[in-house]
Model the fold of this input.
Amino acid sequence: MLRETGAWDPYNVTKDADLGMRIARLGYRTAVIQSTTYEEAPARLRPWLKQRTRWCKGWMQTWLVHMRSPGLLKRELGWLGFAVFQLLVGGTVLAALVHSLFVGELLWELANSAAAGDSAALRSVGLHAIILVIGYLVSIMIGLVGLFRRDLLGCAWALIFIPIQWVLLSIAAWRALFQLVSDPYHWEKTAHGLAQSSRLAERAKALTYSGADRPQPPRASASC
Done:
């Protein structure tokens, strides 16, 4: 099946997204298994920003590649699949790009309307603020559902930083857009095995203590 789909595109920095689309276009289905991933998320801002930039750029690449022929894409996916592709791949990136502009405009209008004492403008600002808060609440609810399923509700306090995360995500999306033009195939890799709970870190520690990572002397051989 991988050969039939052309394996993966080495120039797409989120090749799993592109491969998933080609699998769907050929009529195959994918599913998520009940499992656990031990790949830790970046705990520092710079690696996190690079990772999200790579993801956004790859989704942009995926959207552009598959939208080269919208009619063919619609026939292969159907109307529902076509709409999901627009919302999930294109819409995710578009929402991140627009978010910083929306917040900036909201703050600008709030400052100007408050200074002018314009009650009508303030009501408009209030409506926009309500829409923004609803968006944040939806993101928080999604996070709560995930934490509940993993029995990790003790970490739910971190969800109060969702607005900050969205601002940072918007910065990553704009970085991705600039990279798409200037350096589309650059891969900002994410280092793993840094967390204390990482299985890679535990394995490296075990090898160090056991001496298994030390170079072994060459064995004598009767033939070359």
User: Anything to note?
Assistant: The helical segments are 15-25, 45-66, 70-116, 119-149, 162-182, 199-210.
